[in-house]
Amino acid sequence: MTPPAPPPPPRRVPTLTEVVKSEPPAAPAGVEPVAPATPSAEEQLVQRVLADVQRQVDLMLEQRLREALAPALARLTDALLRETRRELASTLQEVVARAVAQELSRHRGR
């Protein structure tokens, strides 16, 4: 028995920028395609338990991160507020000094 002849080459070869639609390979003659297997009860149980554990781990991780980060974030917030107040006070002092100097020069010019 000789093997079947290979299919003829395509008449036109697509370029790299073209979208090529591929068709699923045909099943050999006399072979029925197999439908995807449905998960067994055990596999479904494993998936449910895994999803439950993942949710619990996510919640626990979030809680622990919040507990661990809260003190550090509070310190950083306090430091940021102190620095911002210092900068604001310095800027306000400069603005007021400039305004007073301008007003005094106007009064002297009269």
Supply the key terms:
110 residues; mainly alpha; 1 helix; 0% strand
SSE topology string: H
Radius of gyration: 38 Å
Strand segment tally: 0
Number of helices: 1
Through-space gap between termini: 119 Å
Q: How would you characterize the largest beta sheet?
A: none
User: In what range is the share of β-strand residues?
Assistant: under 5%
In helices, the fraction of residues equals 55-70%
Chain oligomer state: single chain
Give a brief rundown of this model.
The chain has 110 residues and is mostly helical. It has one helix at 41-108. The chain has 1 helix and no strands.
Structure, explained:
It is a single chain. The chain is 62% helix and 0% strand. The termini are far apart. It has one helix and no strands. It is an all-alpha fold and 110 residues long.
Write the SSE topology.
Elements: H1 41-108
